[in-house]
Automatic annotation (TrEMBL):
The keyword Phosphoprotein applies. This is Response regulatory domain-containing protein. It holds the Pfam family Response_reg. It comes from the Bacteria. Keywords: Phosphoprotein. Residues 5-122 form the Response regulatory domain. The modification 4-aspartylphosphate is found at D54. One of its GO terms (biological process) is phosphorelay signal transduction system.
Length: 140
């Protein structure tokens, strides 16, 4: 079975290396970006099953990345974009959902095991949506 491709866009080196290691150990292929500009360039190439996007980053924040994708979609379709943030109940999160983010994970609250569970859930859901003709008719 082909490994799911994850793009991790995270400027904090410790968090980025931790998430990379945890996800690789769980059987995912992980590419990383160190800031929003680097992340946007990789997202535009496309082909990722899931994108984990930090909100607060230098050069270009997560919301600016999401806005750019609305104006210039990727060459190859990507799976869902899930925010990585330490913000909870914040207007920034609502704004991100309005810009097509599919979820958010609070970095300070999530354990490595929970991260893997969430990533599996998002990658499985996106595969179901793409490959299942039932998904369209049953969405409520």
């Amino acid at each position: 079975m082909e490994k799911k491709k994850i793009l991790l866009v995270e400027d904090d080196q410790f968090a980025r290396e931790l998430y990379e290691e945890v996800l690789k150990d769980a059987g995912f292929e992980v590419n990383s970006a160190v800031d929003g500009l680097d992340g946007l360039a990789k997202i535009k190439i496309g082909g990722y099953d899931l994108i984990l996007l930090d909100v607060m980053m230098p050069k270009m924040d997560g919301l600016d990345v999401l806005r750019s994708l609305i104006n210039e979609p990727p060459a190859v379709k990507n799976g869902p974009i899930v925010l990585l943030t330490n913000l909870t109940n914040d207007p920034v999160i609502d704004t991100a959902y309005g810009l097509n983010a599919k979820g958010h994970l609070v970095k300070s609250d999530i354990t490595p095991g929970e991260l893997v569970d969430h990533v599996k859930k998002y990658t499985d859901e996106s595969q179901l949506t793409e490959s299942s003709p039932i998904a369209d008719s049953s969405s409520s």
